[in-house]
Amino acid sequence: MSAKLTSGAILPDLAHEKDQLILNDLFAADLSHFSRFSKEYTAASDPTNNFLLDYSKSRITQPIFVTLFNLIRKASVEQVHGKVFIAPPPRRKALCCPLRTKEKVVNVFDIAKENMFGFWDWVGGCYSFWSAIGLSITLVIGYEHYEARLCGAHDIDAHFLTAPLEKNLPVLLAVIGLWYNNLRTDVRAAPYDQHTHKCADYLHSCDMKSSGKVITKGSKRVDYQTILVIWSVASTNGQHSFYQLLHQGTNIVPADFLAPGMSHNPLRGSLHRRILLSNYFVQSKALVFGKTEEQVCREVGSGANEALMKSKVVEGSRPSNSIFFPLLRPATLAHRSLRAQDLHTGHHLGHQLV
User: Domain count of the chain?
Assistant: First the structure.
C-alpha cells in the first residue's frame, strides 16, 4: 500500500475491512486473542510500577497491524521517533536548573537571578509540568513525590525509545489511534478513579492543542487527519450521561478504560472499589459482545412491548482498550502520560507518512 495518506483514500487497502471486523467473531475464532493482543509493562527502575495494556477489544487484526507497522517503517519511524521528545536525554529533571538565557527579563523586575527557576523556551505550556513550572506542584505534593513522577516518566520514555515497535506500548496505541483517526472517529478516555478526573483536561491540552493544526512546520496544508477528538468524564458519572451513545449510538467511538486495582480509600474492605471495578470490566465486555434480542427477551419476558425489547438490544463489536494498574501513585501517574505520549506519537507518525 502507499505510504502516503490522502484525504480521498485514507489507508486504502484497509479501510474497507473496518465494517467487516466483528469483535465477537475475533474472540470466538482465537482463544488466545487476549494474550496475543495485550502487553504488560514494568518500569525498569521499580518493578512495582507496572500495568497491563489490553487492546484485544480494538477492531483491528494482526494482518492490519502488520500493514500499519510496515507503513510506519517505510516512513523511517524507527530512525526518527526519538525526535518526538521535547526534552533532552537522559532525564527530564534537568529542566529544573536555573535558566540563564532569560536573566535580562528577570532583571527588568529587579528579581535576584539566584531566586529564578527557569526553563528552555522550547518547552510548550502543555508539557511544562516536567519543567520548573512544576514548582507549584512540587510545593503541594513534596519533592519526593514529584521526583517519583519524573522517574516514572523517564522509565516510560526509555521504554518508548528502546522497545521494538511491535512491543512498544506508546507506538502500539499510536498505530491504533492512526487507524481509528483516519477512519474519521474520535476517542473517549474513561478513567475509573476520581483522583484522575482532571486527566482529560491534560490530554486536551497536551494533544488537541499541540497537534490540532492543519499546517505543518513546512508551511504545507495536511491532507490527512492530524488528531483524534478526545473527551472524558471520570468513573460512573460517564455511565449515567453518555455511555448509551458508546453502546447503542450510530457513531463508533473507541474508548480507553483506565483503572487501578486498589484504592487509597479502602472503605468497608474496599467494597466500593470492587463495585467500581465491576463496572470497569463489564463496560468493555458489553461493548464487545453486546446483547441480542433473544437475551433481552429472556430478561424482560416474551410478553414485553416490542419497542421496549428492541430499545434494549446492544449490537456489540464496539472497540475499546483497557489499561489496568495496581495503585495510582506518582510514578504510575507518569505512566498514564503514556496516553498523551502515544497520541502525540500518532500525530508524528501521520506527519512522517506524508
Answer: 1
Angle, CA of 193, 277 and 24, to the nearest 5°: 120
pTM metric for this prediction: 0.71
Apex 54 CA angle, 226 and 174, nearest 5: 20
Angle of the 330-352 helix axis to the 169-181 helix axis, nearest 10: 50
pLDDT, one tens digit for every residue, the chain (354 residues):
333 443 334 455 566 666 678 888 888 888 899 999 999 988 888 888 888 889 898 888 888 888 888 877 887 777 766 555 444 444 333 333 344 445 666 565 555 666 666 666 666 655 667 777 777 778 788 888 888 888 888 888 888 889 999 999 988 888 888 888 776 667 777 888 888 877 777 777 777 777 778 888 788 898 777 777 888 887 778 888 888 889 999 888 888 888 999 988 888 888 989 999 999 999 999 999 999 999 999 988 878 888 988 999 999 999 999 989 998 888 887 765 554 444 444 444 444 443
152 domain-assigned: no
Can you give the residue range of the structural domain that contains 29?
7-87+165-336
Q: Has residue 156 been placed in a domain?
A: no
Is 209 strand, coil or helix?
A: helix
Q: How many CB atoms lie within 10 A of CB 12?
A: 12
DSSP states of 128-144 as a string? GGGSGGGHHHHHHH-HH
Comparing C-alpha atoms, which of 93, 88, 156 is closest to residue 130?
93
256: left (phi over 0), alpha (psi -120 to 50) or beta: beta
**Residue 204 placed within a domain:** yes
List the CATH number of the domain containing 193.
Answer: 3.40.50.10490
